[in-house]
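note to self — DONT lose this again. spent like an hour looking for the file last time. sequence + predicted structure for the chain T wanted, 246 res
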Amino acid sequence: MNRSLDEAREALRQRQGDGARYDAAAAPARDLDWARRGTAYFARLLNGLGDADLDGPSSLEGRLRREIVAHVGYHARTLSEIVSSAREAQPNAEPVPMRVDIAEVERRATQPARALRNLFAHSKVHLNVEWRDLDDAQWRAVVANGADQEIAVRDTPWLRARAIWLHAIDLGAGGRLTDAPPDFVEALVADLTAERARDDDVAADEGRRFVIRAAETALWLSGRRIRRPDGVSSEMSPSPVGLMNL
């Protein structure tokens, strides 16, 4: 574990004192840190936009900013349900959704700007509380929905981190992946590269001769435009990822 992260957690405990809730020892501290820093970054960008700005286009082709905000909110809600299921472990419980409800996102995206901002604010707090309430055994649990789909609870912070950082860029409010922690960007590149390798429909891109940084690699792998060193905007990758699901 990163020593500086250990020190930051201990300093936080000393400031908050007895009675405050902390992550369990088995929690994936690095991934949680990435997710929380990404959430704070997204929040700053969102707060910098006026209500009318939410009706403008995002950086994700064909999506308005309000759609990005709604999706980010429901992404957090979906992860919260997964984490809550592991914590409560109720027998004969209803199947847990393993994907964001796109129809609900599209409906919610049409609501007033204040409602969208509240959705984001409430969903981020809820997810963080769910993570904080997990004990060591629950962090090691795997949640299934009865349809051959399952998610390890300890993977949920990573799923949130990669979605929130990429959608912060998609918001089109000045966000840059180079603002993310470098080790997160490296992990994102590795994750997206593995996904591309599993996609039989993606052709090899042997024609590219320019060198790009890790942050640009991650953007290209996720189907987002980058700029070459000569300033020319590149083509998007053959299969844009778009809105990040689970």
